[in-house]
Design brief:
The protein is an alpha/beta fold. The protein is about 45% helix and about 15% strand.
Length: about 280
């Protein structure tokens, strides 16, 4: 049986509601699920209720963008208390950073002759955290580019004409905040940091020294070679292993929700080990 511990909803840059995600998880025969929206826990309470009703194991989650030595990293926080007042306050500058970046990107696009208004972006995003993926979808809808990926390659990616950075906390501070909110910190899609895997060993050891709890081993774009190297690093550092699809919806066709039919199936044992580690931390 499979689980999926990395999914996104309309509360960040996914296109499904939590209810739609849960319905898909049931259809795919999943046993467990985690909603890990970017820099927000707005959907956590609803996801918890829906999973309980559907008989799915659920673990609260969030995905936080952070940085270390100039590298942009994503840290997944599992088992956090979504009502933790300190966490909610701590997330606000990240959310405001997204808003500021959106405004700058739209102005850069206007300067390039691409007319996308803040009202159009707001209408598309509906709720939650709005970001570059929403702008990318509008670039496709307006015929400026022919695909979601092309929007990033031509306009929105790092060092492209409409690129703009945003505020992020240092990795060590992010890990510490996840711990204070009662959770475990897991490095998301580590294989994406450097396809050659030459950077990861030193970064992961430094993150471990800062309290990192785990690595996302099962990920759609991780090759067998990457997984072998990551598994060895996790063993050396005493890190948990997790897995998830990074499902956003139709905008990312390579990232299907987990399930045996999709050919991507993180095992249930990962959730069991994660839950056990959380229980140990809380004793």
């Amino acid at each position: 049986m499979c689980i999926d511990l990395h999914t996104h909803s309309i509360h960040s840059d996914g296109i499904c509601t939590p209810a739609e995600l849960v319905a898909m998880a049931v259809e795919h025969g999943l046993r467990g699920l985690s909603l890990t929206d970017h820099d927000t826990v707005d959907g956590a309470e609803e996801m918890d209720r829906l999973c309980a009703e559907a008989g799915l194991a659920v673990i609260s989650g969030v995905e936080i963008s952070t940085s270390l030595h100039g590298h942009t990293l994503h840290i997944l926080g599992y088992g956090i208390d979504p009502a933790n007042a300190e966490l909610l306050h701590w997330l606000v500058p990240l959310q405001q950073g997204r808003e500021r970046r959106n405004a700058v990107i739209l102005q850069k696009l206007q300067n390039l002759g691409v007319d996308i208004t803040p009202e159009e972006v707001e209408e598309l995003s509906h709720c939650g955290q709005t970001g570059r993926p929403h702008i990318a979808r509008l670039l496709v809808a307006k015929g400026v580019v022919d695909s979601f990926d092309a929007a990033f390659r031509q306009y929105l990616g790092r060092n492209k004409p409409a690129w703009e950075g945003r505020f992020s906390y240092p990795a060590a501070e992010t890990i510490a905040m996840i711990h204070r909110a009662g959770g475990l910190a897991v490095l998301a899609h580590p294989g994406q940091i450097d396809p050659s895997m030459s950077i990861q060993p030193a970064l992961i050891r430094e993150l471990t020294a800062s309290g990192l709890d785990g690595l996302e081993l099962y990920y759609p774009t991780h090759s067998q070679k990457m997984k072998k190297q990551l598994k060895a690093l996790a063993a050396q550092c005493g890190l948990l292993l997790t897995g998830g699809s990074d499902f956003h919806g139709a905008t990312r066709p390579m990232h299907h929700l987990a399930g045996k039919a999709s050919g991507f199936c993180p095992p249930c044992s990962l959730l069991e080990q994660l839950t056990a580690r959380l229980a140990e931390r809380r004793q």
